[in-house]
Automatic annotation (TrEMBL):
The lineage of its organism: Bacteria, Pseudomonadati, Planctomycetota, Planctomycetia, Pirellulales. It comes from the Bacteria. This is Circularly permuted ATP-grasp type 2 domain-containing protein. Residues 74-448 form the Circularly permuted ATP-grasp type domain. Pfam families: CP_ATPgrasp_2.
């Protein structure tokens, strides 16, 4: 099993079977012919279709629901490297949580000039109504999805932090179950870190941050069936054994939140909300929200319910604030960042902005608050017209843009039209923060299925692989 391709990219499996990075995995995969792998790939795709494992793509011409794209060749990570990644993610999330606590509290980091005050105050996700508020147990970031990439220098970089409603973990769990069904022999003789207990750990994390310790109850609040991550909402609620609720199932009275059940109203202590801040409560945020629960924020401000993640947490994943995360870690923990950032230019800084405008053809320009791969301009691959449009957008609203050098994402062999070919990947590990930090081993490996493409988002035609933290 060998794939030629982008020679400059780091191959996660090793450049060839003769020089594998992970011998045990190479042995088990090496026993399977390409024909067998292709057959199993077909079985996997049929399985996903039959079980209705889909995601929705907004604004897509040929129907919104897509079968989840999956590739059977796994992405391996050595145990020793995973330990380093885990330490780096733990450090990062503790520091970002302290940053949120400070920004909505005493604002010492802003007074000390470590992070520019204006950058925080002009962040789209900054919620002035939360100033002076501290969430139950002091946790702002219950669930984080941190996107990691490996450049051709072999170094793992943090590409971005997702602290609002990061999605994708249901596919991590589904990918593993699917692999066990379609490639059971590869699991023989390969020690892979288990991930099955994630829903249990997620529930534990949520309940640890409940305002009342006595027999707390959690629910998962979904915007409904038309949301692109609705499959995940139903999956996680079912796996955790909690109710999946719409806003109409919740009611605020007597200073608490209640859920309507067949036995009458029952108290809710923790809401794992998969609805954006602005839609949570029409009395506090957007008055036109049809998805929120009137009076919810009033209960929250009085400490009567936990919202996960905390409203306002999005400032810590603003792509302009991202540049300061190494300083944030140093400020609160007096440690150097274990996982490096990608060098970043902030367009709200006039000097950095002129550098970006002069070198746009070499850089990747991103909106500071968008997600899903939308609005990104890949300078080295953009047309003159696209570069001109991007430059005009940056000039009209510099605060809304950052730029970074274009990284060469590492590759993993992927089955394309019955053959193996390298395709670029990233990794989204999931970090839980309750009474302690817990990290799911591995995470969601997203793969750009289009040759040469670096855009891995499923909303932009990417797929996924099972991620194996090898314990040998």
């Amino acid at each position: 099993m060998h794939s030629n391709g982008d020679q400059t990219a780091f191959d996660e499996l090793g450049q060839s079977l003769e020089q594998p990075r992970h011998p045990s995995l190479a042995r088990s995969l090496g026993t399977l012919s390409l024909e067998t792998l292709s057959q199993r790939q077909h079985v996997a795709e049929t399985d996903l279709r039959e079980r209705g494992i889909t995601f929705a793509v907004y604004g897509h011409g040929d129907g919104a629901e897509k079968v989840w794209p999956f590739d059977v060749v796994p992405r391996p990570i050595a145990a020793s490297e995973w330990t380093m990644i885990e330490q780096g993610l733990t450090q990062r999330i503790i520091a970002l949580n302290l940053f949120l606590d400070d920004v909505y509290g005493d604002q010492k980091i802003l007074d000390d000039g470590v992070v520019p005050r204006e950058l925080v105050m002009t962040s789209e996700s900054y919620q002035p109504k939360l100033e002076g508020f501290r969430p139950p147990a002091g946790v702002w970031t219950h669930v984080t999805g941190t996107d990691l990439v490996r450049h051709n220098d072999g170094v793992v970089y943090v590409l971005e932090d997702n602290l609002r409603c990061p999605s994708g973990v249901s596919y991590v769990l589904e990918n593993r179950e699917l692999m066990k069904r379609v490639l059971p022999e590869v699991f023989q003789g390969t020690a892979i870190a288990p991930i099955e207990d994630y829903p249990e750990r997620l529930l534990q994390t949520l309940l640890e941050t409940a305002p009342t310790p006595d027999n707390p109850r959690a629910v998962l609040l979904t915007p409904g069936i038309y949301n692109s991550a609705y499959f995940e909402h139903t999956f996680l609620a079912q796996q955790m054994g909690v109710e999946l609720v719409l806003n109409s199932d919740l009611v605020v009275q007597d200073g608490r939140v209640w859920v309507r059940t067949t036995h009458g109203l029952e108290r809710v202590d923790v809401i794992y909300r998969r609805i954006d801040d602005d839609f949570l409560d029409p009395e506090c945020f957007r008055p036109d929200s049809m998805l929120g629960v009137p009076g919810l924020m009033d209960v929250y401000f009085r400490g009567g319910v936990t919202l996960a993640n905390a409203p306002g947490a999005g400032i810590a994943d603003d792509k302009a604030i991202y540049q300061y995360v190494p300083e944030i870690i140093q400020y609160y923990l007096s440690e150097d960042a274990i996982l490096p950032n990608v060098p970043t230019f902030i367009c709200s800084d006039p000097a950095q902005c002129s550098h970006v405008l002069e070198n746009m053809a070499e850089l990747v320009v991103k909106p500071t608050n968008a997600s899903g791969g939308y609005g990104i301009c890949l300078g080295p691959r953009a047309t003159k017209e696209e570069l001109a449009a991007c430059a005009a957008a940056v000039r009209s609203d510099p605060r809304n843009y950052i730029a970074q050098p274009m990284l060469t994402l590492s590759t993993v062999p992927t089955i394309i039209d019955g053959k193996l070919a390298p395709r670029h990947v990233d990794l989204r590990p999931f970090v839980l923060y309750g009474s302690s930090v817990r990290i799911l081993p591995g995470g969601l490996t997203r793969v750009a299925l289009v040759e040469g493409s670096m855009i891995v988002n499923s909303s932009q035609g990417g797929g996924s692989k099972d991620t194996w933290v090898l314990q040998d």
